[in-house]
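#help-structures
NK: newbie question, is this the right format to request a structure? protein is NADH-ubiquinone oxidoreductase chain 4L
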Amino acid sequence: MIMILYWSLPMILFILGLFCFVSNQKHLLSMLLSLEFIVLMLFFMLFIYLNMLNYENYFSMMFLTFSVCEGALGLSILVSMIRTHGNDYFQSFSIM
């Protein structure tokens, strides 16, 4: 019963993060925030999994390091987009 409670909350929050990512595609900042929420829930699930197997948390620290690098890259893309286009709307620029 405890195992179900450990896994149900991160799974529900992960699915809600995916729903927010798919449904909110107007601003880049809101999409980046939902992606960071998804990564945080993946980290939480990885942390629970490694603690249940009595492994060390070295891999989770590597995962956290890469997720911080991903967040910094997303913020740099956001800053460069705001400097070139003036806002973070996806409708204001074209891919081509």
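mod (FA): yep, format's fine, and the tokens are attached above. Helices lie at 2-23, 28-52, 58-85.
NK: thank you!
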